[in-house]
Amino acid sequence: MTWWRDAAIYQVYLRSFADGNGDGVGDIAGLESRLGYLRDLGVDALWINPWYASPMADGGYDVADYRAVDPSFGTLGEAERLIAAAHRHGLRVIVDLVPNHTSDQHPWFQEALRAGRGSPARERFHFRDGTNNWQSRFGGPAWSQVDDGQWYLHLFDSSQPDLNWDHPDVRAEFESILRFWLDRGVDGFRIDVAARLVKQVGLPDKRGLFEGVPTFEDADDEPDKDRPEVHGIYRDWRRVLGEYGPDRVFVGEIWVRDPERFAKYLRPDELHTAFNFAFLKCAWDAGALRAVIDRTLATHATVGAPATWVLSNHDVTRHVTRYGRKDSAFMKREHGVPADLALGVRRARAAALLSMALPGGVYVYQGDELGLPEVFDLPDELREDPVFRRTGGLDLGRDGCRVPLPWDGEEPPFAFGTGGSWLPQPPEWRELTAARQLGDPDSVLSLYRLALRVRRDEAALGDGGMRWLDAGPGVLAFERDPGFACVVNLTDEDIAVPEGEPLVASAPLAGGRLPADAAVWLRTAS
Ligand code: GLC
Q1: Is residue 243 annotated as a catalytic residue, yes or no?
Q2: Tell me: the pLDDT tens digits for 39-48?
Q3: Ligand 1 in contact with 277 (CB < 6 A)?
Q4: Distance from the CA of 196 to the center of ligand 1, in angstroms?
Q5: CA distance 215 to 386
Q6: Considering 205, 217, 243, 501, which one is annotated as catalytic?
Q7: Closest to 266 (Cα-Cα) out of 223, 239, 235
Q8: Which residue of 230, 302, 382, 453 has the fewest C-beta atoms within 10 A of its own C-beta?
Q9: How many angstroms separate the CA atoms of 300 and 270, rounded?
Q10: 3-state secondary structure 231-266
Q11: Nearest-CA residue for atom 3 of ligand 1
């Protein structure tokens, strides 16, 4: 079976993972020094956020050179060595591809600025003499004006001009970029903003407009989203990938709500997998979760693709915080909403077991395995996310889920590096360092290590089928062959545990009963 159908994939937000050169920013050297930690955690692959040359106006999602590594992260040679070193540790490497837009510092955009209106260089982007009513996903208008009066489209920050995917140069360039990294041994690509590359001809106005804080829920049939022509791009790319054998993989960032439209991206000649954002957004509620799980599995079955289970990433409020809120469904980033973090951690532990037991692949965002909460009280002047600025602070942005990891010690930067950390870590994270948690069998880290090992070595979870068990209202229980059951208690009271030998539990079973907001894996008689 191909590895990606059931892989546990760890998301490395490089700027905040580990700093090898003491400048306060995570880098490739830091990542390489921690590969042993990731191997021992028990994941199968890494997805590394963009490491390309970039002015860092959007944390590297503004790429100036797709074939170079940003000096703050290292060199191309270091990236090549990292890929080889990860492979020696048994870890595959997925890199992030950003095809919707470049940086305004990219040579093509600089050439377009110089070449002026009507020039062929401008045709690689969306230059117009007027604008439409589109808003940036980061807040504010989606158009900025250049010196000669023309406007260019940017669905994100003004430093991220959208590419024109109807242009043959754009198509040829990205196939060449794919080959560049495949030739360097990467095992796959995470495709940024995968549903928005193609825009409706003529760029017509939108019907629905958001104002203030962008939500993650715009309609599917907008003129800048899920255009049918986008599938041709992925079919072309799949052919390129296929030249490198069956083991290279695409994972799409596809915020498309309609299951049928979503599944189209996962047809056998397009992308292999996509992030399950419906699961990420779902409230901590048995009925809602069961409905999402059923819909996910049914949708993926229509195209034979494996599901993925995702709880957090570098764009959303960390789930420890979300699950500690009264309303735990995620529609948009919010601040000032009270959260009971102890409750959030209990639920996050249970959710980890749920997500690892379900059929398909599972993602772990760095810091999930430490039970990190969102950080809200960062000084404004240190916030880097353009969302903060573009929404006038209505949305604090994503820096709060990107705070550098606490590795060891009693004080910041907790061995993140020797030169501080680009965002300050809360002093109370001394309780959450990886080193401290390694020594505590009851820690979140110990739970992740145990569960990932059991998932891979003992219970053979991952791809395959599952059957719901009737365990009463508020309880999610299912079994998988051979002889495995997962029970998650989302009620307010402890419940009886079905028969079986407990393999992993997210909380101690008291008198054989499963506490509220806890989960257990069981070996059952098959
Ligand atoms: C994706 C990335 C996000 C980035 C945006 C623009 O949503 O995950 O971090 O800001 O695309 O590239």
Answers
A1: yes
A2: 999 999 999 9
A3: no
A4: 12
A5: 15
A6: 243
A7: 235
A8: 382
A9: 13
A10: HHHHHHHHHHHHCCCCCCEEEECCCCCCHHHHHHCC
A11: 315
φ, ψ of residue 309 in degrees (nearest 5):
-130, 115
Cα distance between residue 352 and residue 120, in whole Å: 51
DSSP state of 323: H
The pLDDT tens digits for 142-173 are 999 999 999 999 999 999 999 999 999 999 99
208 closest CA partner among 128, 135, 138: 135
Ligand 1, atom 12: nearest CA belongs to which residue?
61
Instruction: Judge contact between 33 and 18, C-beta under 8 A.
Output: yes
Q: 297: which 2 tokens? A: 């599995």
Two structure tokens written together for 265:
């991206």
- For residue 429 the two structure tokens come to 């994270």
On whether the CB atoms of residues 361 and 307 are closer than 8 A, the answer is yes
Instruction: Show the tokens assigned to 212.
Output: 């203030």
Q: Is 218 in the pocket of ligand 1 (CB under 6 A)?
A: no
Task: Verify whether ligand 1 is closer than 6 Å to residue 61 (CB atom).
Answer: yes
Instruction: Find out whether the beta carbon of 162 lies less than 6 Å from any atom of ligand 1.
Output: no
How many of the other CB atoms lie within 10 Å of CB of 399?
22
364 Cβ neighbours under 8 A, 6+ residues apart: 8, 9, 10, 11, 41, 43, 448
**Known catalytic membership, residue 222:** no
